DNA sequence: CGGCATCCCCGCAGATACTG
DNA sequence: CAGTATCTGCGGGGATGCCG
């Protein structure tokens, strides 16, 4: 099931893109960076549209630049919706997409593991 | 470093150590870097001692330097055993620890998600 | 308020060569 | 074969300032 015989990667026909290896590499490429997972997880547990500023406070101390960058990446990859309201002052809301939501179980598991083992790990 | 201020850390009951924030941040700190998760996962699915060279081939195309660095980090954190044989030529074997092994379910889930969704994701 | 633009630092990570 | 040393770059990501 979750086996990965990476070494002798069977030659995939056609111009398969870079996702021919271990799925872990794909995952790291997808959520690389210090803030990607925390942002995603926040959007998932929130579950409803959330404003930029509120999100930033929730994932503090991230900078606006980085939060914007990551959100744009997620939007481009179909993990996050972005909704702009033509108001004054401006309002922008972000929300996890159904596909993004399917990460919930995995990320919960991850968070649980971390909560259990954080105290045993040397920093 | 990423210390800054604990903006609005909700008071957690009991003795509260350095891991007072979102466990996701701890996780990213633990396995930051391009190769950490692939290496760890490889050691987990292998399940038995594996030589340095073989591990490197399995997680190709990682460099020796990076593989050494990550393995040392994992060893220091109690996720990986390191066993040196006084032979000629030298032989060093690495193995996942029981604590590291407990990550299996989480990482399997992660890999499964990636396999399912890789094709839907814009690179 | 959201989000570009700019400047800049530092550490991940690659390439290469050398040692026991 | 495993590991170290050195050089190098690239980009993540922080700080600040301006604009609609």
TrEMBL record, chains A, B:
Q: Which residues form the HTH hxlR-type domain?
A: 22-122
Q: Name it.
A: Transcriptional regulator
Q: Which organism is it from?
A: Mesorhizobium temperatum
MF terms from GO for this chain are:
DNA binding
InterPro entries assigned: HTH_HxlR, WH-like_DNA-bd_sf, WH_DNA-bd_sf
Asked whether the keyword DNA-binding is assigned, the reply is: yes
Q: Which UniProt keywords apply?
A: DNA-binding, Transcription, Transcription regulation
Give the top-rank taxon of the lineage listed in the UniProt record for this protein.
Bacteria
